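Backbones bend. Shown next:

***
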Amino acid sequence: MASIGEVISALHHCNDPELGANIVDIGLIYNVKIAEQKDVKVTLTMTSPMCPVTSIIMADVQLRLEAVPGVGRVEIELVWDPLWSPDMMSDDLKYRPV
């Protein structure tokens, strides 16, 4: 049996190589659902429809979620509505020193 906390924890290890931050703090994760206590569906977006690292991030999400104990099937839905904006980033990321 997988938990939302374990799934979110795994997603915190998926980094956007261009931004150097994890996809949860960037605000790319829109929804996480677990069906039958094992099948995981993640709805996410990218910072832009032209994001050159989309396939890298999607593959990383797939691999990390499949590695979570108790996770069955993994489904990743890439959406563009609503469009991502910097307002979706965590406060820690928005205000991190450069």
